[in-house]
């Protein structure tokens, strides 16, 4: 079966009643955990972005705390997992402020790690790639926010 385009889906959904839409959403949420997580965000957390960001930061803290630091292999593996989860939560939100905030926090946690990421070129590359992503996200923000986030990024890079 081939999936149809977003426009076709939108047109078809416009012909459905409220009850039918509700049933479709519930049916969709049963198939994949990500669908359920996205619905949870849209229904319960999207109205309070600050608490959403805070909950993700707390989750990141726990994950960074649990990293096995005995070898850089395990560190890299755990860091990639944390980053992929963070990116998934960023996709749910679709807000550049959230993206910037979470990626800055991720990079800050990465810099605080012991042993230092500077001893692993691969971890340093992950850090550098995220800094580039942060810069792109900052460029798309309002001027006042750009200034604030740029200061935070500069501060992070100074401690680098």
Notable features of this structure?
160 residues, mainly alpha, 78% helix, globular
Question: What features would you describe in this structure?
Answer:
The chain has 160 residues and is mostly helical. It is 78% helix and 0% strand. It has eight helices and no strands. Helix 4 packs parallel to helix 6 and helix 5 runs antiparallel to helix 6. The mean pLDDT is 91.
Overall helicity? over 70%
Number of helices: 8
**Overall spatial form:** globular
Beta-strand content bin: under 5%
Mean pLDDT across all amino acids: 91
Kindly name the structural category. mainly alpha
Taking the sheet with the most strands, its summary is:
none
How far the N terminus sits from the C terminus, by CA atoms, comes to 50 Å
Poorly predicted tracts of residues: none
What gyration radius follows from the Cα positions, in whole Å? 19 Å
Summarize the structure.
The protein is mainly α and 160 residues long. It is built from eight helices and no strands. Helix 6 runs antiparallel to helix 7 and helix 7 runs antiparallel to helix 8.
Give a topology summary.
Elements lengths: L5 H9 L3 H12 L3 H13 L3 H17 L6 H22 L2 H17 L8 H19 L3 H16 L2
């Amino acid at each position: 079966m081939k999936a149809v385009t977003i426009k076709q889906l939108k047109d078809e959904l416009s012909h459905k009643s409220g009850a039918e839409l509700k049933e479709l959403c519930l049916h969709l949420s049963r198939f994949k955990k990500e669908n359920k997580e996205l619905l949870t965000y849209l229904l319960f957390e999207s109205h309070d972005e600050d608490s959403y960001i805070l909950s993700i930061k707390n989750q990141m803290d726990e994950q960074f705390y649990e990293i096995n630091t005995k070898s850089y292999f395990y560190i890299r593996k755990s860091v990639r997992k944390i980053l992929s989860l963070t990116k998934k939560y960023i996709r749910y939100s679709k807000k550049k402020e959230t993206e910037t905030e979470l990626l800055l926090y991720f990079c800050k946690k990465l810099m605080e790690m012991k042993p230092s990421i500077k001893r692993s070129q691969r971890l340093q590359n992950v850090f550098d790639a995220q800094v580039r992503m942060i810069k792109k996200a900052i460029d798309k923000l309002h001027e006042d926010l750009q200034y604030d986030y740029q200061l935070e990024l500069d501060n992070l890079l100074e401690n680098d």
